[in-house]
Amino acid sequence: MSESQVSLSIVVPVFNEEESLPELFDWIIRVVEEANISTEVFFIDDGSTDTSWEVIQSLKQKDARAKGIKFNRNYGKSAALQTGFKATNGDVVITMDADLQDSPDEIPGLVKMIREDGYQLVSGWKKKRHDPIGKTLPSKFFNMITRKVSGIQLNDFNCGLKAYKSDVVKNIQVYGEMHRYIPLIAKWNGFTKIGEKVVQHRERKYGTTKFGLERFVHGFLDLISVTFVSRFKKNPMHFFGTLGTLSFLFGFITTGMVIFEKIYNLYHHLPARDVVDQPLFFLALIAVVIGVQLFLAGFIAEMIIQVNPRKNEYLISENTEDA
Q1: pLDDT under 70 in the chain at which residues?
Q2: pLDDT tens-digit map of 100-114
Q3: Which of 19, 82, 100, 189 yields a CA-CA distance of 20 to 30 A from 167?
Q4: Do the Cβ atoms of 35 and 109 come closer than 8 Å?
Q5: Which residue, 250, 238, 253, 241, is CA-closest to 294?
Q6: How far apart (Å, rounded) are the C-alpha atoms in residues 220 and 138?
Q7: DSSP state of 203
Q8: Cβ neighbours around 195 below 10 Å, total
């Protein structure tokens, strides 16, 4: 099977999942063969310390549809997904976790939603979860906040089971721990046809979870980061300049009022405090300095993006040229 014949690419980040990989791959192949979908499966070994890579190599020898990429150390799920996205050849791309908690039986339904229903991205919704309450409650709160900030009405942003039109994964950048916010990143890149599908969530069969409660703290910080970058990466002066203007005007007006008050009192022979004896004067000066610094930060950011080769790269959905 040549790369041009592949219609579905599946990307599976792997970190110490040696026991589940053979069962997962056999399950995927059984489902796609029944649905008659030509498929390639990319296992991205994110620096596993067990025998996961050896298992992946054995799967590659057994079936050419299995492909593997190995990192020399653990870079995180976002790096694994981004690397997998670059390597895919199918017109539909599906991501799933390697721990068997995502069911491959959902693959045909996800492919249908992309190809026939016109969605550019479909996110799984683990409506019934087999996780402890210490994981489900923070997850619900996290999803609620993300819905409010992003405006995307999804119930489960962090579900690893997602389907994409190929154009989406080829035109977004996933880094850090931004894999939680791929729908938001896709939206800010113009891919707004985002849907959701209720999917089966299975209990973990092998090993233990690789994520702790700290991921929710990191997730909140990442949400702030991705929201800021998505909105202001092309025009950072709009952000820094607005804040700088407000801070500078507050400081300038307040300083003027303090000085005017003293001059007025002196002119009318009223008691007058020295300007430097008033805490408000120093707060106003700090506001002026901060305003200037924010302006400088905006100018520097603008100069940086001027030399960024990606500054004027825009996604073209259709291109009509005269013959």
Answers
A1: 1-4, 130-136, 204-220, 230, 307-323
A2: 989 999 999 999 999
A3: 100
A4: no
A5: 241
A6: 11
A7: P
A8: 16
The SS3 assignment for 134 reads helix
The total domain count for the chain is 2
pLDDT at residue number 173: 87
Two tokens, residue 178: 């931004």
DSSP code at position 206: S
Tell me, yes or no, whether 163 lies in a domain: yes
Residues 224, 295, single domain; the answer is: no
Q: What range defines the domain where residue 274 resides?
A: 236-306
* CATH (domain of 136): 3.90.550.10
CA pseudo-torsion sign 201, 207, 210, 216: positive
Please give the model's pTM, rounded to 2 decimal places. Answer: 0.73
Helix ranges (DSSP H) in the chain: 21-34, 52-62, 77-87, 107-115, 133-150, 166-170, 182-188, 214-232, 236-267, 279-306
Residues 77 and 168 in one domain: yes
